[in-house]
Amino acid sequence: PGRSGRSALNYIRFGTRTPVTWPERIDEALCETLTRYTSRKTIFVVTQFNHPREITPESAAAVAALRRAGCIVRNQTVLLRGVNDSPEVLGELFAGLTRAGITPYYIFQCRPVTGVQNRFQVPLLDGIRIVDEAKGLQNGFGKGVRYAMSHPRGKIEIIGTLPDGQTIFKFHQNKYPEDASRIFTCALTHDSRWLDDELNPI
Fold it and tell me: 3-class DSSP state for residue 148?
């Protein structure tokens, strides 16, 4: 809502895996439709490439078509154990994305979903190191990616670890007013994969 109390639609955002899983769907008819609307309103397309092998000639062509239609393309990645949990693989992904005209946006900690958390979650301290080292391999836009988690209390950035072992976090979105832009620290163990009441009573 603006200051007048009226809400305004500033942009349109699509989150999709289509360029990865069904790139041929980004066809001429769809792009013609997008072109008509990007002349009136900014359209962001947020993709989810999780591994550099997903950046195929077909997916890159789909992204190029979206960009020609006037869309701004960004990417959100999920940090996944056994998939992209090394600085080299993650760094190759970031470089491949920027080369394809996609800005790396967020890399998310895998959520503690049943059947997933014990298989794909990476410990947070390992994740901080992996993301920082992957960013260190980048030039320019690849360095701007943020490591974060979609917590029930909001979107929390995982910033880094202090010399005393405490890890710094910051709310970027919040469910409760008292958490707005709040920075806090938490002592993590080497096995900590999420923030919960036991780890951090926030």
Answer: strand
